[in-house]
Write a structure and sequence with these properties.
Helix content is about 60%, strand content about 15%. It has 6 helices and 4 strands. It starts with a helix and ends in a 5-residue tail after the last helix. The structure holds zinc ion. The site of zinc ion has 4 residues, from α3 and α5.
C-alpha cells in the first residue's frame, strides 16, 4: 500500500519530473552523471551544471518533481534537505507547483519583496533559520 501511494505521488508530479528527466538524460553523453536517492533521481555536472549556472539566482541545485539537479555531488549533498522539501511540495501540488511558484514570485516582486526568498515555497524549504528571514524579521531596537 505504501508503494502504491508513492507511485501515485510520482505520477502526480510526473509532468515536471519527465521534463527534468529527459534533459538530464540528454546530458549523460556530455558529462552529466545520475544517481538515485530514495524516491528521487539526482543529476549532476555537465549539461545540468551548465543550466544551473545560467539561472537568475545562480542556483547550485534545483528540484523538478522527483528529479533534482545539482552542479556537483557536493552541491547535492549540501542542498538535499532543502530540495527534499521541494519534492514534498511537488507531491502536494503536482502539475500546479511551477505555475504557483512563478505566481508567488511575481506577487512578491510586485509587492517590493524578494521574488525568491519571500516566495512561500522557498520560505518553507529554508525554514526560519536562514539569514534572509532573520534579518527581515528583526525588529528595530527602540
Ligand atoms: Zn528552493
Amino acid at each position: 500500500m505504501k508503494l502504491f501511494g508513492q507511485l501515485l505521488l510520482c505520477a502526480w508530479a510526473s509532468p515536471t519530473s519527465i521534463i527534468a528527466l529527459v534533459i538530464g538524460m540528454a546530458g549523460l553523453p556530455f558529462g552529466t552523471r545520475l544517481q538515485r536517492r530514495g524516491s528521487t533521481l539526482e543529476f549532476h555536472g555537465g549539461l545540468v551544471e551548465w543550466i544551473l549556472e545560467r539561472t537568475p539566482i545562480d542556483a547550485v541545485a534545483m528540484t523538478l518533481g522527483h528529479v533534482i539537479w545539482g552542479r556537483s555531488v557536493a552541491s547535492l549533498d549540501f542542498s538535499r534537505e532543502h530540495e527534499l522539501v521541494h519534492v514534498r511540495q511537488y507531491e502536494r501540488w503536482g502539475p500546479f507547483f511551477l505555475p504557483m511558484y512563478f505566481l508567488f514570485s511575481l506577487t512578491m516582486w510586485l509587492r517590493g519583496k524578494n521574488p525568491y526568498y519571500d516566495n512561500p515555497f522557498e520560505r518553507e524549504a529554508y525554514g526560519d533559520d536562514h539569514p534572509h528571514y532573520r534579518s527581515a524579521d528583526a525588529k528595530p531596537e527602540s
